[in-house]
Q: What sequence folds into this?
């Protein structure tokens, strides 16, 4: 009889564990994304990334981190693979990405291309997700990327590499880890200070300002200019710094309404925050 009771208890225990596992697998944080820490591509109809966008982001992150096996799994999860499979890349980038992926938070990457509310990238304020059935508590952040904005950039290839989808994604992850931008002209801010360390390791131009300049080409047409510094060695072997510019012409520059720079944007200001 005792054996029977013990066996029954064991079965009940197994059923409960299996039930929890099933619940855990089924738990979703919205947009069809599994509710688990890490970085995930949204699986939703509205903001899901296309295969081309996933592949591009993967390529950018491989180049920046040097992790050759980094990829998005079938379910959208960003996986690094073998941590020691490295070719070049930035150590600072690897440390920052690893810190975000192991922070216990979830970052859901969304496609906001052609959005009037997002310029390049944006992190939402975060949501506390709770599933009492499985005692799951998760901080979820949406990383919104406007892939179309990167096609509106005019700059040298090196500056474009310094300001690509991969760096924008990492910048937003740093916000999720608590780092802040600056509102003071000529300061670079906490996120871009770290991103500049990554750029320096890769030999790329450094961002010289966080807040961009708004230039009035004509009374109706405006463009946004962002300054970079590029290191070079002159004929005498001395280090020289050259100024490089990135130009970006958003839709509002042609008089269209945009929420992208609100509420921080002041229409009369000559300084604008891009991401
Ligand atoms: Zn930012």
A:
């Amino acid at each position: 009889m005792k054996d029977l009771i013990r066996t029954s208890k064991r079965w009940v225990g197994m059923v409960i564990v299996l039930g929890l596992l099933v619940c855990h697998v089924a738990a979703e944080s919205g947009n069809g994304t599994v509710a688990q820490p890490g970085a995930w591509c949204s699986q939703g109809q509205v903001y899901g990334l296309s295969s081309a966008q996933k592949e591009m982001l993967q390529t950018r992150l491989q180049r920046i981190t040097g992790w050759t096996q980094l990829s998005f799994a079938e379910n959208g999860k960003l996986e690094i693979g073998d941590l020691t499979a490295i070719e070049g890349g930035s150590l600072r980038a690897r440390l920052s990405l690893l810190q975000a992926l192991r922070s216990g938070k979830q970052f859901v990457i969304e496609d906001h291309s052609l959005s009037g509310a997002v310029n390049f990238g944006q992190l939402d304020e975060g949501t506390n997700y709770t599933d009492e059935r499985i005692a799951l508590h998760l901080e979820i952040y949406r990383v919104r990327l406007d892939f179309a904005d990167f096609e509106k950039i005019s700059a040298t290839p090196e500056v474009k590499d310094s300001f690509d989808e991969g760096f924008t994604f990492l910048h937003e992850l740093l916000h999720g880890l608590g780092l802040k931008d600056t509102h003071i002209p000529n300061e670079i801010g906490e996120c871009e200070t770290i991103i500049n360390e990554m750029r320096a390791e890769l030999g790329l131009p450094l961002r010289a300002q966080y807040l961009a300049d708004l230039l009035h080409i004509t009374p109706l047409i405006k463009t946004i200019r962002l300054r970079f510094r590029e290191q070079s060695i002159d004929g005498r072997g001395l280090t020289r710094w050259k100024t490089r510019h990135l130009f970006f012409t958003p839709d509002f520059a042609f008089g269209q309404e945009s929420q992208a720079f609100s509420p921080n944007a002041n229409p009369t200001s000559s300084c604008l925050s891009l991401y």
